[in-house]
Amino acid sequence: MRIRTILVPFNVARDDKAAFLRVFSVAEALKAHVQVVFVRQDPDEVFVYLGMDVESPSELREYTRKRVEEEGKLAALRSRRHFNAACKDMGLVKSKKPTDSIAASAHWEQEFGEPTEIIPERAKLSDVAVFVGGLARYSRSSRNVLKATVIQSGRPVILVPDAVTAPSFSSITVAWDASPCCVRAVAAALPILAKASRVQIVSITEPHDKAPEPEKLVRFLEWHGIQATADVLPAQGRRVGELILESAATNTSGLVILGGYGHGRYVETVFGGTTSYVIRKSDIPFLLMH
Fold first, then answer.
1. Which DSSP helix (H) or strand (E) runs through 258?
2. What is the DSSP letter of 261?
3. What local confidence, expressed as pLDDT, does residue 50 receive?
4. Would the pTM count as exceeding 0.85?
5. Residue 146: is its pLDDT beyond 50?
6. CA distances from 225 to 85, 192, 212, 221 (A)
7. Is the pLDDT of residue 25 over 70?
8. Which stretches are transmembrane (predicted)?
């Protein structure tokens, strides 16, 4: 089993060719097909978000509709141009579906509507969703594409920070707490872990908490032909996210795998605590699963 399809969402945020190059580097490493989905806001739906209704002056509604339409067209053209340039630079085959050969390929298309509804649905039938550029910059906004995709799709999501120019997953850190989310993240990432030359498992412990026994995960991975080492680190009052990223950096990891990582005896929400810290502070790509 290997990663065959990667969903990559884009919208009107001003992402450049470098964002596509980061995604294509992931595709090359996994020999996967990239499905780029550029989502344009439906002009008629914009009125709802702006608090406008049918009673609003018709001139204002028409002006708003035309402006949204024009901005959407320009953003889509810009995105398609960057996509074509990145494909040329990376030598990627353009194809609407994965190719028969073991090689990376890519396709660009656009959809109209609400990104928080479209992208989670599209992600359900992709092996993994990769977020780069504007959509990878998480905020606590209630209408957030990243948050919606992680929670609603049931699929793994990889975030590639802007600081990463050429992602490499040859060395991977697994932040293991034995929670159901973390178990799902590891299971979904098995094809990626199988390609790595180095896998490190890190578990953070606090006083009076039951240790997550990472050596059991080491044995599980061995049965899948994946060699791994395990470290158990005491929190000693420090942030769990900080310790995870510090350990990953020390081991020169190119990817961190976590799944709603729990903090001690307290259960965190999917974007609370440790997960939020990693999203805000990491300069290493990481894989999330809810």
1. none
2. -
3. 57
4. yes
5. yes
6. 38, 12, 22, 6
7. yes
8. none
